[in-house]
Amino acid sequence: MNVSVDKGKNYDEGQIQVLEGIEAVRKRPGMYIGTTSSRGLHHLVYEIMDNSIDEAIAGFCDTIKVIINKDNSITNIDNGRGIPVGIHPKMGIPTVEVVHTVLHSGGKFGGSGYKVSGGLHGVGAAVVNALSSWMEVEVLRDGKRYKQRYERGKAVTKVEVVGETESTGTITTFMPDPEIFDEVVYDYDVLLKRFRELAFLNRGLTIQLIDKREGEEKEKTLHYEGGIISFVKYINQNKDAIHEDIIYLDGKKDNAEIEIAFQYTNSYIENVFSFANNIPTTEGGTHVTGFKSAITKVINDYARKNNILKENDKNLSGEDIREGITAIINVKLTEPQFEGQTKTKLGNADIRYLTENVVTEKLQYFLEENPRTARIIVEKSITSFRAREAARKARELTKRKSAFESLSLPGKLADCQEKDPRLCELFIVEGDSAGGSAKQGRDRKYQAILPLWGKMLNVEKSRADKVYGNDKLTPIITALGAGFGEDMDLSKLRYHKIIIMADADVDGSHIRTLLLTFFFRYMKPLIENGHIYIALPPLYKVNKGKEEHYVYNDRELEKLLNAKGWTRGDNNLLIQRFKGLGEMNPEQLWETTMDPKTRKMLKIDLNNPVVADEIFTVLMGEKVEPRKEFIQSHAKRVNNLDI
Predict the structure, then answer these.
(1) Which of 331, 477, 582, 624 is spaced 20 to 30 Å from 570 by Cα?
(2) Are strands 447-452 and 425-430 parallel, antiparallel or unpaired?
């Protein structure tokens, strides 16, 4: 319901506006798809596809084809049963029309349509329809081809028979409404990465993505008979596995099924990715808790039984045992219960017990049958334990030193006056000269400055003990105040906006990447909770007469010159290129990069942890060849190396 009050008139019954169904979706799209930015646009594709995936899970569909058409409309084709077209007993209109025009309709609400389903809890097709300028749905079933057209969520034609067919399935074509979305342009790579994930999670399913846009023509077919075993292999393709076999465990009880696949690498990073009904559970949940507790117990028991851990040795912690692991936990269940603000944490209590039982029983058997692999895993865990003990001692030493020192915050930190962390910003600034300008130009009440100097540790190649002792990273950890790794406590975070401010050049990009790698690997909750930002300083200052403009890249510069009719040969035109933040005086830095009213910033989101892990591994990992291939494949898309 939307309550609207005109203060210039009487407030009476007529001023209460009630939004129902499709109208509510168009009025408040963010409530249904999160955002009307590029992410929300791509979400429409996933919602329609989820209906096809549900058919696949139920065993009635094995092929899904998604086409980006020349006009940026989307076509989704599956070979499932086809949406029913008969008159709905309750609504009195064709069922296919109910599915596309009535919220909370579909075969997912306690009926016998689907035992397992993902998506937006049954509102997917209707929401996509509501947010599209037009949609056409064709249904192939009962030997006939049916068709209906909708515009902005409402049916504009009746369900008509337009031909005969021996096939079954549903074909949905829709055009996102430009009145709703910032820009209607799809990113092929974004769709491909999500579809690859879905193909891994649904063994045997074929997903085809076709781009028909002029100059962008390409297609990819995804099919993985190995399922999540292939998923682990894919994630580890740029890492060095320490044992050949990928361990696979599965089991079911009542209406729930779980499968787990994992393999260890020589990395120091733990990667556990979990899903419930194909939905990424980025905050974990009962299936992840069950896995972690069971694997810890089983490996400790095995190590003691085989005398690898002696009687007086401490038990290995969960952190020790999971160092270097790449694991996929995939659960499918009838009634998923999601928790957390973003609904990405599974809460079903019975799934924890199912997971624990499956891991305990089947991992014990695997270790006994594969003693060589078992010993490799245990020895990796013991090595991790020793390094973690060294890190713990370093932390304890730091804490003891801080207790006796009058000031425990980093010496170079210029703190802000405000004590409410929700109002505080920390600028992590590259270089002392830029740090000096930032300190002078900031709003001292709310903005703190922490200058860094020199290149910092690449944590992708380092253990936790090296991270804690690093003189470039320790000031950041100390200034933020929330700890790092397993010890992180966001309630102690001293700043709710952490802004990386580096030069707009290659060195600045490297520093940003090193910092983002550190935050992703050791302080991931900062990213998950939206605390990390990238400052966007301008690249040019343009003056002509009394006019002054700041522009942020070469494209913007050319656009400004063309709009103003200015030419580079004009003696009265001055174009200053900033080589670094240190070239700006405090007033310029405040006006362009730090003033909340005028600055531009990028907020770092974690849309897909699997993709993020892949990129950080390629860019910052040990192997050179994948990095070289990444740079070569993306070189054509780079417009300005300095941005």
Answers:
(1) 582
(2) parallel
Containing structural domain, residue 632: 421-537+603-637
**Total tally of structural domains belonging to the chain:** 3
The domain that holds 507 is classified in CATH as: 3.40.50.670
Provide mean pLDDT across the span 180-204: 93
Q: Give the span between the Cα atoms of 128 and 29, in whole angstroms.
A: 10
Distances (CA, A) of 505 to 526, 629, 638: 25, 22, 13
Q: Which of 223, 238, 272 is the last residue of a domain?
A: 223
Same domain flag for 261 and 334: yes
Greater pLDDT, 580 or 213: 213
Using DSSP's 3-state secondary structure scheme, residue 572 falls into coil
pLDDT at 112 over 60: no
Q: Pick the more confident residue, 222 or 435.
A: 222
Tell me, yes or no, whether 522 lies in a domain. yes
Q: Does 207 share its domain with 244? A: no
Q: Is the dihedral of CA 253, 257, 260, 261 positive or negative?
A: positive
Say yes or no: 274 and 210 in one domain.
no
548 vs 583 pLDDT, higher one: 548
Task: Give the three-class secondary structure for 12.
Answer: coil
Active site residues: 430, 503, 505, 507
Residue 578 lies in a domain: no
Under 8 Å between Cβ of 279 and 345: no
Mean pLDDT of all residues belonging to the chain: 86
What residues form DSSP beta bridges with 346? 285, 338
pLDDT of residue 246: 97
Write down the H helix ranges in 443-545.
464-468, 474-480, 506-522, 524-528
Phi, psi of 10 (to 5 degrees): -65, 145
Residue 8: DSSP 8-state: T
